[in-house]
Amino acid sequence: MASNPQKQLINSVETCVDDMLEGVVATYPHVRKLRGHRVVLREDFEELKSSGKVTVLSGGGSGHEPFCAGYVGANMLTGIIAGSVFTSPPPNDILAAIKAVASPAGTLLVVINYTGDRLNFGIAAERARAEGIKVETITVAEDCALTSTDKTAGRRGLCGSMLVFKIAGTLAEEGRPIEEIARIATEAANSMGTIGIGLTPCNVPGSGASFSLGNDEMELGLGVHGEAGVKRMKMTPAKSVITTMINHMTDQTTASHIKIASGDRVAIVLNNLGATSVLEFNIVIKEAIAFLEDKGVVVERVLTGHLMTSLDMAGVALTIMHLDDTRRRCLEKDTTAFAYPRQIQSKTFVVGSKRIGQPEIEGADSMETTGKDEIIASDIEPGNKVLLIEAIRSACDALIENEGLLNDLDKAAGDNDCGMTLKTGAQGIKALLDSFPQMTPYAMFVAMATSVESSIGGASGALYSLFLSAAAVPLRKSTDFQGWCDALNAATKAISKYGGAEPGDRTMLDPLHAACQTLQPVQGNSTPAESFQKAVQAAEEVTKATTHMKAKAGRASYVNPELLTKPDAGATAVTLWLRAACDVMGKRK
Fold first, then answer.
1. For the domain 194-332, what is the CATH code?
2. pLDDT higher than threshold 80 for residue 520
3. I need a labelling partner for 348 at 20 to 30 A (CA). Which of 107, 396, 417, 439 fits?
């Protein structure tokens, strides 16, 4: 049965993550915590940067320890960013980590496939690019639990991510270029599969059990946050459990299977979800190896332990990865990462030195900068700047005035708060308007991105922050008509890339995509104002059409389609602020 949620060895719910990270850096002297952020870095990250090698970052919610701080070290991650328990880390912490380890060779972000992680790492990546930092992202999504081909948030990233950390980190240590590392790491991520089995729920600090299971039940394919799995089953012997797990992973009728055949050479990972006894754990790994060998599969590498836990959940997760020469070599390389099943050595720790209170390192966001590091961005003629500011004001007013309409449209598909949420964000931006005359358009968009990130909660805040961050990048170079076209296009692509939606999915992306497709270079006697007017009209038309679209992304995708009888609230919001801004900018010189 689940343990009593009152019996947890923490000081407080509010400080448990920070206390945990302090414990990590106190115990393992080869890592350091970045001052003011939930970021843990290799002690030698400066040497790595100066050597011209790629740096590698990852992160995610806490509660999965030793993931992901346990994978910081030589031939693994340069650093990690920790979120609150079961919550994606915020963009400001991710950006601080990127700045701290930014290398001329680039920084690779290994993103675990959960919506919050994709969005927040995406925001940070776009902001870093806007500041001239070379950043690439890859996503790990090896979950084999899904059985449907319907569009969802996608396959979850699970404990197999640890293998990708090792491969990417080793290639970076060897001095490989970032494009090659990203390609090989992505191929590795696509060559593996993971599935879990849960016997008990986990107890979240301050919240208690995450779900309930009967004494005689187990759940196949559940997520590491306690998300529902494929099915619940009666308890069976360990051999039968492993048979069920691997048969599901290799079932070619499912959408997310992994193929294995006689003669394949693989590495397997057995991850303890938190509270499985050592006796049970060793029985399960024995059965997994026996099952695969009975199929003629060659099990070359076996990695076991508490690798990506779910607090105190009883259960295991099994990963199978196909090996080639590169993956095999990378997995064998020594590492100082303490959670990887190898002996850990410190380059600098001296016996007798204090572990608590070791000097913290300063991040790039707290270091002094010189003039050569300042952002030089394109500006616009004073009269047009006044119009731009008024356009932003008008766009905000449109959202504020239509709070009721947007709430009403959101009632069937969400939780009736779209208007209220966007009103809060618009009010935050309006509070910045007095400072905009002294800013370039690039700086305005960066400031607005930061504002909505802090004032709007949930996915809406992340999406609009991502939109504004991505739009800022082209505006740094140009603020002519083409520059604004490029800004809208870049922002729309970022929404699709990190949010996971596509045109036709009944989301805010639909009017944005329509506007981008319609916006054409000025020809003949046409003017930029006329071109933008046509783009807004296209956005308005596609927003009306969302009434009849099947929702394939966002919260509406979980709703009975018969209840969706009105235009999408998010798409409507886009057309409201687009129309308001365009009507003002039509006066631009």
1. 3.30.1180.20
2. no
3. 107
